Amino acid sequence: MKNNFADLVETFAVLRGPNGCPWDKKQTHESLIKNLREESEELITAIEKKDAANMQEELGDVLLQVLLHAQIAKEEGLFTIEDVIQGLYDKLHYRHPHVFGKVKANTPEEALSVWKEMKKKSRKK
Fold first, then answer.
1. Distances in Å between the alpha carbon of 100 and those of 6, 37, 52, 81, 96?
2. Contact, 24 vs 16, CB < 8 A?
3. Residue 110 CB contacts under 8 Å (≥ 6 apart), including other chains
4. What distances in angstroms separate CA 42 from CA 24, 45, 47, 63, one per listed residue?
5. In this predicted structure, what is the pLDDT of residue 14?
6. Where do runs of H (alpha helix) occur along the chain?
7. How confident is residue 122, by pLDDT bands cut at 50, 70 and 90?
8. Closest CA to 10 of 83, 81, 89, 88
9. Is 80 in contact with 66 (CB distance < 8 Å)?
10. Distance CA 68, CA 16 (A)
């Protein structure tokens, strides 16, 4: 049986729960900064080396960081992983009107220009 994203989210709730891992329960956003930097650098190295197997593993490690931060934020009443996902979904749809709307972009350069313009507009809101 393969596990899904919800199973992974639940795993982090258990890890930080009453019977969870002492190390995981102790972590804060600030204490995890070093780990996030290291995992991001390891992913970059795997990409640069075109090492697909290692890239898969490092993407998992970066995702671990995202999910752990989201679990901590949920516990602090700040936001949930669902909020992160919704925010990303909304951003992608807003910044890609050439895909999800009526704007035209026929080249990568035009698409990047549209992205940058939409980003600038969203910052003014």
1. 27, 33, 31, 24, 6
2. yes
3. 98, 104
4. 21, 5, 9, 13
5. 98
6. 5-15, 22-26, 33-48, 52-75, 81-95, 97-100, 108-124
7. confident
8. 81
9. no
10. 9
> Mean pLDDT over all residues of the chain?
96
Q: Which two tokens stand for residue 95?
A: 């910044």
At 79-96, the pLDDT tens digits run 999 999 999 999 999 999
pLDDT at residue 30 greater than cutoff 90: yes
- How far is it, in rounded angstroms, from Cα 10 to Cα 89? 21
Task: Give the SS3 label for residue 56.
Answer: helix
pLDDT-derived band at 36, boundaries 50, 70, 90: very high
